[in-house]
Amino acid sequence: MEKLYPESGVELTPFVAKYYDKLMNVMSFGKYGSFIHKAIADMDIQPDDHILDLGCGTGRNACLMLKSLSDKGRVTGLDISDKMEKQFNTHCQNYSNAEFFHQRVDQPFDLKKSYDKVFISFVLHGFPQPIRENIIKNAIYHLKPGGRFNILDFAEFDMYAMPFYYRIPFQKGECPYAFDFIKRDLKQMLAMAGFDSFQEHLYFNNYVRLMEATKPE
Ligand SMILES: C[S@@+](CC[C@H](N)C(=O)[O-])C[C@H]1O[C@@H](n2cnc3c(N)ncnc32)[C@H](O)[C@@H]1O
To answer: Which protein residues are within 6 Å of ligand 1, measured from CB?
Structure first.
């Protein structure tokens, strides 16, 4: 399949999509599991939350979120990858309150429903800036007033100030859009879209951040 954004590193090849979770475990020297548990715990999920997961991937994150939800809570995952759809459905097969839709998140869409939380993990950095702004607009559009947007992604940092053992894998593994993303002020981007009440959690030596922002009442 041709890429929508040729320089994007988040439009994965079928091979990378198939082994995505394993690759993350290897690339993080086995630390990905404990990191993602912590980040999802930091989201303060409430039992009845309805959560929209943009670019949901394999469903690994959805399963962790579902563990904090009651039967009334729900996770809706959106992704464009057939390989991810298959893995999401397998991972979440024991949950009747998980659903997957084949949906692009980089252009306007309308699910005709409002959510308590919108989650996006390691997706936003992989697009040109105007497309990131489209994604943020999709998030605010789909949130209830008072709802929270949770962005788990690279934090702001100077790539050239990183120790070489972090810098080299980052430079080799990430796409040019990621190099741009780490220089951007995410809070300002979110404020421009209408969000407020920001809260940040940092991981992996402050190179990764969960940014939480609220849609005003
Ligand atoms: C780096 S992976 C992250 C997956 C997952 N969020 C996670 O943290 O494990 C990026 C995901 O975004 C999806 N993706 C890329 N472009 C997309 C688009 N335009 N619309 C929806 N999903 C997209 C990919 O298929 C892939 O599953």
So the answer is: 4, 10-12, 55-57, 60-61, 78-81, 84, 104-106, 121-123
